[in-house]
């Protein structure tokens, strides 16, 4: 492998944690204390992973120990993009405009670009979304609409990061609003409920009191 004789593969949450330590140099030692539990949330394009890191002490030095690793959840940014695309499709359908599978693929890419442009520009409240026509009407049949910041926030907060309690678990079936979109989710799309269940399963790993583990720091 490129002339490297010794290679160690790391899970993404652990690699992200090491990158944070490296970025702070020795500063991380001033940000944590013995007994702290650090939650690492890695929400990628297609998957979500959680890890817990316990801060302990050995011979006067801080020691970091990974005490829990979550399941490899098939849920991530791609699901958010797909949900946005279906939300736009449903809005267009209400206006009498129907899209076929080929146009849906184009809509997915356009919705993703619009989302990224809005998030990268705090002053941008909406962004155009363009869907090409078909056959001889590729240009003339172009469909133009827009995606707003409010729509994005509603989809993300209501569908993927809703409010939940310490004892909540992922639901076996999706919320009605998301079911109507016809998306092929394999599990509850609410990332936050997967996180709550992860913390419940590992609440005793750090020997801390309390009904639910409450991390002292969170690294996204």
UniProtKB/TrEMBL annotation:
<dbReference type="InterPro" id="IPR043129">
    <property type="entry name" value="ATPase_NBD"/>
</dbReference>
<protein>
    <submittedName>
        <fullName>Uncharacterized protein</fullName>
    </submittedName>
</protein>
<keyword id="KW-0067">ATP-binding</keyword>
<dbReference type="GO" id="GO:0005524">
    <property type="term" value="F:ATP binding"/>
</dbReference>
<dbReference type="Pfam" id="PF00012">
    <property type="entry name" value="HSP70"/>
</dbReference>
<dbReference type="InterPro" id="IPR013126">
    <property type="entry name" value="Hsp_70_fam"/>
</dbReference>
<dbReference type="GO" id="GO:0140662">
    <property type="term" value="F:ATP-dependent protein folding chaperone"/>
</dbReference>
<keyword id="KW-0547">Nucleotide-binding</keyword>
